[in-house]
Amino acid sequence: MKKVLKSDGFQSLIASLICVILGLFIGYIVLLIINPEGAFEAILAIIKNFLFYPSGPARMKYFGATLVKTAPLVMCSLSILFAYKVGLFNIGVAGQYCAGIGASIYCALALNLPWYFCLLAAVVAGGILGTASGMLKAYCNVNEVISGIMLNWICLYTVNGVLKNVKEPSSPYTYNIANKNTKALLPNLGLDKLFGNNKYVTIAIPLAIVVAIVVMIILDKTKIGYELKATGLNKNAAKYAGIKEKKNIIISLAISGGVAGAGAAFYYLTGVEQWMCTSSAVPNMGFNGIASAFLGALNPIGTLISSFFIQHITNGGGYVDKTVYCSQISDLISSIIIYLCGFVLFFKTIMKKAGGAKK
Amino acid sequence: MILLIQYTLIFASVLILVALGGCVSEHSGIINLGLEGEMVFGALGGALAMKYLSPDSSAIVIIVVSVACAVIAGMLSSALLAVACINFKADQTIVGTALNMLAVAAATVIVKAINTAENPDNVSSEISYVQEKKAFIENINGFEFSWFMPVTVVMLIMIAVLLYKTRTGLRLMACGEFPQAAASVGINVFKMRWLGVLLSGALGGFGGLVYITAGVSQWKFENGVAGFGFLAIAVMIFGQWKPKHIAWAAVIFGMFRALSNVYTGFNFLVALHIPSAIYNMLPYVVSLLVLALTSKRSRAPKAEGIPYDKGMR
Question: Which fold has domain A2-358?
């Protein structure tokens, strides 16, 4: 028992839980300030999300709706996590996700390709953007955060421009993939039946879990994973040991970008959402990925849980009383949670001290 | 042409103010990636001040009160970064990013709450300040001169003097180069870093206010400040962490940013039929190229980004 209490994994779990509870608590206080009546119902609605519905099938349907959005979030946070293991903070994940959207929708609508090619195109597009960031970091010493942000904006305007070609004539949205090219939709394999006939539940969800496991295996069990982590721990020591640190920086950001791109395809190829060609900011999905990666203590399995949680409260934000509150309250809660994740080291030190005192 | 100069100068002012903020903070040893968020908070503070001031107040009152509110809001938000990064040794990149997200989410929630409370049908995140904004601007033969332009020049000189000519400034810079050595001669590293971050918050907040009054009279807080804080960081790197260089870099970047606003006024640019998306992404493309070319021989403060640890050698 003592061993469990002292293990790093357990302490990470406790630290993450502290972040979540504090985050929700601060969110509740904000709701109280906006309007004390109904604040409790509002925070309850956020926490309940799909449990809001009384009947079983409706619950399953909206549980599915949360999962549909969790799949891309898992991919984005895996992308952050993978780069972070190499000591890189890939904030460009939002742009890489955006590139994935552009590539997959264009392939689906303009080129009429089947879904696996669209998915591949998204991976390649995200990967190229990641590689660009990596090259700038490795050869030109440009901080990956700055280049990532710049590429996010460049990518947003490019995707807006490219997808204008496959836009509905009367609205700023792209055509619905379901009406134009059903081959491009991800297959369901009967999963939709499980979730109250939610047709957007596709193989994206199991695939995201598979990717999480693959990422874990790559990082923990392979030579390349070992080299990447060594580069992250100490770039100079890794170089001294004969590891090509520049190559590793580029590879890790390329993989990271590819994962984010795939995440975009996992979401947009279900047909659940269309891209708005006048978007003025990259989708929030990438930034939420940062929240869930750190909340999941940078562990692929932890990420699966934390991604679900973040998406759960984000969707839950949709159920608050809109005449008094706004749904962005959940964005506020997730950003508070990331801020608190900065204190994780501090929480852990306290726990270690407390553990030592008991002995 | 006048329009281009006007926009270039006002955008350059924003970039100078915010980049100086980044410069002060980095010289003290803290990478302030939260500048974008501090701008949003500053903009929110200033916009709310303008919203609640009566439009009949004299110009000077409007200017002083809204600038003060923006500066205080920026400083308060930077205190969040300072506590986490200086006292709790948190990862500066994560906290900075968290601050940026927090700023946009908090500003949206606050503005929407205010708008909905006033009118339940109004769910937008927009504040408008058409009348109050006029206090900042003098119209000289079609050229909209903003009082923020000379103020920026004054701030630029003040920061340059502070950093290079005063005891505090030199001590602050020592904390960004080799904090342990600074501590060994009795400088309080924590205090210096707090000073650096708070100053950067004040400048960032001020910059945020200038940005939302540049050419527009209402602001939608859902959009944050569209990456301007990061552009300012790029300006700072291009300016090699030196105030004078930062000023020139800001003018160049400001011009590219201004082009996307006013290119329709130039017949030869319109004749080229370049899509507007290209003009929109131009500042970011240019900054990326410039960074790629200049970052190799970077003169960044040596200890930036590393939490201060007394025992470390």
Answer: ABC transporter involved in vitamin B12 uptake, BtuC (1.10.3470)
